[in-house]
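User: Okay, second chain of the day. Same drill as before: sequence in, structure tokens out.
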Amino acid sequence: MQSMVRFLLYANEFDIEGLIASAGTFANKARKQNILDVLDRYEKVYDNLKKHDPQYPTADYLRSVTFQGRSGTWGRKGTVNIGEGKDSEASDALIAIVDKPDPRPVYIGIWGDCSVIAQAVWKVQNTRSAAELETFLSKLRIHQIATQDGTIGWLRDNFPKLLIIHSHRTYQGMFGGRDPISNLAWVNKNIRNNHGPLCAVYPHEGMGCTGVCEGDSPSFLWLVSANRGLNDPDDPTQESWGGQFRKDGDKNHYVDGPGGPSISKWRKDYQKEFAERADWCVGQ
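Assistant: Same drill. Structure tokens below.
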């Protein structure tokens, strides 16, 4: 939820093709209504946001690209989450998005398990030619946060050309509960209190810390910093707000390099922008 609030404040910087509800820790339920509920709050601050940038998408548009994944998939080993009969609204939508006659890459930040993306790849692999599969894969750019089910391993084992950032621990550099520009006092002052209904839903704590605990945000912050000219998103070995990674052998896969400090070193920059955009929600 913390990451969702920050992401929506950056919705003007992306051509958003899909918001996907996938399964995650504890409840292990994919429920797109949770996303739709946040979009109701986004709608209430939309007029203020678009005063600062007319590129902010409407809540109705974002609702139209919100898709349902499958529940019960988080934490499952191997390839049990993919195969015949395991399509979902979300995996079918992802195939349709990649199939659009648009030459640009499709960037996918994975905050829960990887099964929606893996199922889409599995279906294309089993219904199209090898050349068509290669074309499909060439448009995907995946940033997976942690190892949340076995399908990320299946993708890494079977598709060496597919661009995958697999952040085992680097994402933890986003946790800033002990930093005065990221702790609960800072969050309460600059985000949660007196900044409208969207920022008000930003939780005061995450799993194991208070304040900023947005382990999922690096999956899109590397693109935000690319928009600032800091890094090339097709070269994850470069420094970025989402971390810096090292290449995994001769594969087009990237794994932890310097670790969490490669994110936290940029905290003053991304927190400054976060506070500014929270102010936009109330017209400042």
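The CA atoms of residues 78 and 153 lie 8 Å apart.

User: Thanks, on to the next one.
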